[in-house]
């Protein structure tokens, strides 16, 4: 019978029907008893896609409560005692289960069908508390070894909900039964497999279950047969089991930055602004469904910004979303920016602000709207987006940038407060691609269906195979496929669904405005979403190998001629009548789900598309088979003429690079005349392929795109990455990037040159979690740009040990690091060594850009900006001045040089007494003339208040950020130049830095970032880190045993709890040390305190503070990196949070030291032994790499080769998670050896 009218009404609105506790009776005090306390058993909902909140649950709950009211609420005190344990509290769950395929592993042909059910693991001991109907599949016939892969998933349970506690989850299972069909007798119960719900809720939803043969009772009684169970099939399915939560979303610290290029900037910059935030309440109430607010969406308007010129709002309200993690991550919210000129006495009135929170009444207009996806809200609290205006004028479309924080606090459905007493980890599955059951019928989707890959490169040499998976990106959304283990020809049959979301409600699917503004607003919106990237990666927990990728532009899809029939599940197969159809086999009923509706769409066929850009050698071309289309399709008239066609883009940037290189060659030739043997005088163009960095000084401006392999400007590799504030502190940020594994290609090692395809975008680097020095610089610069710093990537040269040289001599190689500018300071960030070099007075932040011919004079405030003496016009005519000069080689030593200039050979003879005075005078004139050159070292930089004690860099060629690239036209050494990038000389003289894109060329050379928005993955789960930590420790122990065993020596270990606890404290100290800034105030106090401490003071007379000072100076080698200080500790206003964080870390370091020192005299080792060892830090968790590195350490080799018998080894491992799945790995290797007489006397 259909539900009653009242129940059906409740079922429409998820907010009303989603709270089953509202229909339960009250207790003796008149309070409503929630379902979590009163319900003794779970009731499953059979309501289909929108099962949560259907009338079925209400009717059942009412019936159960009225049936045994006294028994249900009689023992209230006992229920309260049980609810004290968080594991006993009832939770709501949502289940989606579908079959992907199966395989016959027997030697017979099987005619079978499957049944799937949810039940108690042991029904005799524990009654099942889930009531879901058993599901049956059609009949299939599989030959011996045949694999069946479903073209479309066979959905059995579609978003069914039920309630169970965490403890009950352990006692319930998903049971898969395999039945063999017989036409003449009863069907045979052939195989069975069970999987606990607790395991499903904590693992990858893509499962592979080994079906074991079902034994009869007689066979089960036979012990031999019961132990030797055989596999009969492999059952592959997708099981999404997620808990339903009430997410509390708190919005704070929102900032608006107006776009200065917008036509209305001058008009709106002086108006006051306010924000209206609209959030969904659940997965069925998107903010932009039918109206702007959407059905059931929650909306709040904040007060006007303060009348101080800043558009900032500290608090923007609290919102509640009900659903699973997947529902939340598939949702979005909209922020509207309102502008106007309200009267201050009304706008700043608290009472008016409260009244207008839900219905703004003061005169205003909508300046623009911003749509933000909640994909990463559970991992990252920082959000950033573009505010767009509903206008066809491209110059007014982008209003500005909006960023702020959205903090999500989860609580189980129906609970009023977060569970602060819950200490464990809630069940959570790995994030994968969205299934069709999670889609919204009112939205349009970009569908990508990947069938298979062929001829993939071998990532694992040991197995000769790879573990590939797909990583697909579009519109800042990332989706992953299941991992296919050990296959070079993986069959995915995976569909990816990307919702096409638009911020304007007027542009909803099928509206008149969508057709009217098809060539303007719609085109602007689609272009901003970027290209569809398809990448194939090899699976690894801590790193990944890139197997190849490709990309599809929107023009590739929309410019297809002709249409094909498709639905959201893929292609439509025509059913052919089967003449030999078995009459006893039941026919599968046709479903009528909305996503199976057929439509005519334009389909881009990507069959046999080449996968490019993999660094792994492959004899064959890797291929991928896929198709992509929009469902429903756009209007037939919507087509894209790609403005960035590969051929045209390549030619444009190639021609620009040729002009750039010609200018660089001219400047290099001019530099080589006065400084022929310096780095700046080297040639800047390769003449043949065998040249190295020791022979060249290159000025790169473009690289090869990682996917499409076309020439791309270096500026496109950068993208501002937003991260939480606690990760944005300089020392911690530098330490985080340093933990990324370093890996350099052999070509770069051999030549010392950064190849054109050696530049990678930050998204690629984070996905791979390893890269060369330039990859670390790109990532660090992108992070600093996201922190609103004036950051640049620097390409220069350094001297390094040559790997392939026999004598290991120093050779010049290209290197990359990061530069920031802050209030006159220039800071070099070195990711390879975690050091920051601060150069004071290197640029003037108040100095405006000077244009040629301008007569305005700028007041100079910094000492480095004092005017230089005017050069004579003939000063640059070096050739005419020195044509007849005779300067001997021995005189060249006294000329001022910067860097490591090679010494010329000395000539003993050749001097004449009569020539001494003339030659000395000529030499002085030449030195003075050379020092006045523009390319000579800036003498102001050699003054005491500007002098840098040491820099590891020997030259600097180019710097670039998101907007432009600049070439250094001053002296080659970075310590002796200025960094005013946009300053011209007053009288038309040479520029300090020459830009790659001249003023006004932005329109002629447009470019887009390779990845406009990069999302950083969260830290690895603690259980994953613990497993990796224990695996590494076990591997190192086995390696030690195997090595000594080959030499006939025994290996004993001592891992008692007290010893391991001490070593854990010690490794924690080492980890904190990596995040400390040696230029901080606390470091200065330690250095000063150590200097004041008498050196002959005995340890017994020293205070705890003095012990700490001594340890930091003598053991940890604390020293000042920058003698002139740091800008982060001289500016208290802008860096106060960083200074507080450093003070906290120094206090933590001292606390750990004191805790470790307490047991120094009673160190927990065996009697008669002495203990010593060493810690090692690794930027990788790869066991093979760590083992190889350890074998190169002499101390480790000496420990392994000790021949004494009475020795004990200790190995401790400590891994600390970082954002992006990066790990900081510490390994301590210690040994206890017999105490000798000399040691005892000491």
TrEMBL record:
The UniProt entry, under SUPFAM superfamilies, shows: C2 domain (Calcium/lipid-binding domain, CaLB), Cysteine proteinases
Return the annotated region ranges for Disordered.
1-59, 843-875, 898-919
Q: GO cellular component annotations, sorted alphabetically?
A: cytoskeleton
Q: Does the keyword S-adenosyl-L-methionine apply?
A: no
Biased composition regions of type Basic and acidic residues, renumbered to the chain = 1-18
Q: Which Gene3D superfamilies match?
A: C2 domain
Q: Which Pfam families match?
A: C2, CEPT76_peptidase
Q: Where is the composition biased (Acidic residues)?
A: 863-874
Q: Which UniProt keywords apply?
A: Coiled coil, Cytoplasm, Cytoskeleton
Grouped into one coarse class, the protein's main location is cytoplasm
Tell me where in this chain the C2 domain is found. Answer: 426-567
Annotated PROSITE patterns: C2 (PS50004)
Which residues lie in Low complexity bias regions?
33-42
Q: Would the keyword Cell cycle turn up in this protein's UniProt record?
A: no
Q: Where in the cell is it found?
A: Cytoplasm, Cytoskeleton
User: What sections of the sequence does the record tag as coiled-coil?
Assistant: 251-278
Q: Which InterPro entries match?
A: C2_dom (IPR000008), C2_domain_sf (IPR035892), CEP76 (IPR052299), CEPT76/DRC7_peptidase-like_dom (IPR056290), Papain-like_cys_pep_sf (IPR038765)
Bias (Basic residues): 844-853, 902-911
- Under which name does UniProt file this protein? C2 domain-containing protein
Organism (species): Polarella glacialis
């Amino acid at each position: 019978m259909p539900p009653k009218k009242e129940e059906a009404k409740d079922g429409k609105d998820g907010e009303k029907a989603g709270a089953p506790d509202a229909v339960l009776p009250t207790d003796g005090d008149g309070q409503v008893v929630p379902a979590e306390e009163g319900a003794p058993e779970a009731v499953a909902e059979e309501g289909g896609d929108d099962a949560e909140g259907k009338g079925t649950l209400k009717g059942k709950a009412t019936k159960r409560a009225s049936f045994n009211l006294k028994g249900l609420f009689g023992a209230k005190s006992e229920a309260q005692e049980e609810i004290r344990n968080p594991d006993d509290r009832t939770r709501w769950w949502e289940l989606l289960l579908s079959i992907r395929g199966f395989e016959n592993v027997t030697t017979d042909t099987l005619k079978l069908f499957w049944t799937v059910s949810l039940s108690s693991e042991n029904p005799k001991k524990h009654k099942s508390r889930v009531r879901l109907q058993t599901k049956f599949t059609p009949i299939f016939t599989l030959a011996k070894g045949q694999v069946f892969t479903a073209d479309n998933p066979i959905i059995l349970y579609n978003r069914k909900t039920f309630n169970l506690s965490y403890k009950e989850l352990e006692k319930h299972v998903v049971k898969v039964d395999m039945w063999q069909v017989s036409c003449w007798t009863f069907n045979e119960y052939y195989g069975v497999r069970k999987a606990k719900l607790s395991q499903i809720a904590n693992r990858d939803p893509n499962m592979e279950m080994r079906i074991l043969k079902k034994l009869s009772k007689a066979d089960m009684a036979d012990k031999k047969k019961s132990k030797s169970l055989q596999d009969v099939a492999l059952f592959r399915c997708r099981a999404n089991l997620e808990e339903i939560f009430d997410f509390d979303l708190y919005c704070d610290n929102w900032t608006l930055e107006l776009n200065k290029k917008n036509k209305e900037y001058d008009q709106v910059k002086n108006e006051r602004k306010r924000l209206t935030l609209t959030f969904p309440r659940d997965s069925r109430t998107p903010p932009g469904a039918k109206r702007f607010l959407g059905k059931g969406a929650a909306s709040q308007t904040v007060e006007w910004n303060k009348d101080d010129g800043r558009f900032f709002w500290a608090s923007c309200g609290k919102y509640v979303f009900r659903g699973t993690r997947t529902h939340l991550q598939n949702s979005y919210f909209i922020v509207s920016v309102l502008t106007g000129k309200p009267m201050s006495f009304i706008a700043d009135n608290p009472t008016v602000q409260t009244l207008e929170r839900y219905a703004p009444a003061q005169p205003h207009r909508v300046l623009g709207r911003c749509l933000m996806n909640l994909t990463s809200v559970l991992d990252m609290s920082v959000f950033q987006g573009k505010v767009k205006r509903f206008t066809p004028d491209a110059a007014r479309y982008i209003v500005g940038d909006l960023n702020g924080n959205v903090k999500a606090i989860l609580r189980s459905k129906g609970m009023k407060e977060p569970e602060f007493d819950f200490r464990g980890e809630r069940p959570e599955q790995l994030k994968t691609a969205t299934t069709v059951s999670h889609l919204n019928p009112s939205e349009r989707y970009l569908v990508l269906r990947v069938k298979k890959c062929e001829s993939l490169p071998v990532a694992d040499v040991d197995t000769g195979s790879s573990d590939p998976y797909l990583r697909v990106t579009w519109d800042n959304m990332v989706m992953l496929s299941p991992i296919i283990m050990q296959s070079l020809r993986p069959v995915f049959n995976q569909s990816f669904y990307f919702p096409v979301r638009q911020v304007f409600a007027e542009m909803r699917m099928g509206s008149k405005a969508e057709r009217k503004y098809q060539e303007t607003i719609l085109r602007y919106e689609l272009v901003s979403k970027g290209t569809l990237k398809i990448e194939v990666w090899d699976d690894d927990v801590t790193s990944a190998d890139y197997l190849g990728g490709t990309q599809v532009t929107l023009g590739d899809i929309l410019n297809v001629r002709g249409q094909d029939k498709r639905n959201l599940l893929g292609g439509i197969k025509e059913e052919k009548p089967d003449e030999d159809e078995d009459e006893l086999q039941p026919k599968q009923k046709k479903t009528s789900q909305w996503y199976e509706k057929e439509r005519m769409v334009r389909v881009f066929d990507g069959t046999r598309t080449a996968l490019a850009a993999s660094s792994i050698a492959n004899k064959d071309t890797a291929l991928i088979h896929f198709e992509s289309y929009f469902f429903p399709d756009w209007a037939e008239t919507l087509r894209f003429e790609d403005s960035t066609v590969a051929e045209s883009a390549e030619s444009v940037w190639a021609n620009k690079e040729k002009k750039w290189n010609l200018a660089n060659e001219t400047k290099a030739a001019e530099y080589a005349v006065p400084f022929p043997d310096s780095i700046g005088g080297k040639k800047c163009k390769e003449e043949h392929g065998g040249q190295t960095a020791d022979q060249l000084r290159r000025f790169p401006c473009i690289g090869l795109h990682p996917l499409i392999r076309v020439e791309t400007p270096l500026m496109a590799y950068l993208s501002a990455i937003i991260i939480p504030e606690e990760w944005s502190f300089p020392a911690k940020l530098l330490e985080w990037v340093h933990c990324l594994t370093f890996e350099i290609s052999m070509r770069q090692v051999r030549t010392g040159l950064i190849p054109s395809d050696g530049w990678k975008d930050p998204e690629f680097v984070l996905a791979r979690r390893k890269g060369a020095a330039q990859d670390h610089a790109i990532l660090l610069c992108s992070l600093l740009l996201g922190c609103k710093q004036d950051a640049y990537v620097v390409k220069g040269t350094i001297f390094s040990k040559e790997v392939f040289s026999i004598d290991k001599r120093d050779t010049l190689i290209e290197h990359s690091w990061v530069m920031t500018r802050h209030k006159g300071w220039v800071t070099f960030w070195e990711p390879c060594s975690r050091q920051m070099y601060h150069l004071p007075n290197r640029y003037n932040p108040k100095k405006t850009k000077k244009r040629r011919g301008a007569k305005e004079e700028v007041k100079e405030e910094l000492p480095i900006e004092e005017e230089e003496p005017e050069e004579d016009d003939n000063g640059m005519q070096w050739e005419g001045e020195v044509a007849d000069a005779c300067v001997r080689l021995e005189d060249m030593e006294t000329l001022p040089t910067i860097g490591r200039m090679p010494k010329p050979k000395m000539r003993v003879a050749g001097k004449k007494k009569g020539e001494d005075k003339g030659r000395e005078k000529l030499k002085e004139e030449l030195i003075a003339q050379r020092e006045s050159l523009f390319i000579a070292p800036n003498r102001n930089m050699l003054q005491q208040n500007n002098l840098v004690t040491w820099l590891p860099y020997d030259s600097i060629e180019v710097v670039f950020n998101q907007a432009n690239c600049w070439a250094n036209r001053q002296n080659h050494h970075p310590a002796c130049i200025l960094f005013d990038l946009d300053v011209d000389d007053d009288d038309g003289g040479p520029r300090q830095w020459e830009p790659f894109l001249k003023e006004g060329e932005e329109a002629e050379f447009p470019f887009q970032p390779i990845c406009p928005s990069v999302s950083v993955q969260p830290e690895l789960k603690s259980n994953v880190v613990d497993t990796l930590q224990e695996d590494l420790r076990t591997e190192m122990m086995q390696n030690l045993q195997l090595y000594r065993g080959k030499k006939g020596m025994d290996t004993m270990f001592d891992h008692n709890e007290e010893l391991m606890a001490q070593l854990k404290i010690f490794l924690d100290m080492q980890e904190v040390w990596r995040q400390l800034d040696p230029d901080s105030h606390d470091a200065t106090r330690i250095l000063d305190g150590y200097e004041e401490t008498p050196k002959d003071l005995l340890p017994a007379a020293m205070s705890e503070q003095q012990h700490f000072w001594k340890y930091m100076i003598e053991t940890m080698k604390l020293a000042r990196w920058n003698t002139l200080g740091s800008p982060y500790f001289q500016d208290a206003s802008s860096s106060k949070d960083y200074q507080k964080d450093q003070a906290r870390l120094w206090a933590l370091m001292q606390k750990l030291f004191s805790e470790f020192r307490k047991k120094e005299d009673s160190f927990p080792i065996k009697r008669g032994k002495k203990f010593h060892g060493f810690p090692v830090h690794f930027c990788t968790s790869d066991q093979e790499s760590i083992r190889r590195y350890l074998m190169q350490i002499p101390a480790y080799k000496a420990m392994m080769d000790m021949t004494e018998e009475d020795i004990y080894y200790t190995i401790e491992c400590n891994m600390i998670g970082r954002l992006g799945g990066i790990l900081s790995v510490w390994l301590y290797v210690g040994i206890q050896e017999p105490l000798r007489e000399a040691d005892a006397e000491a």
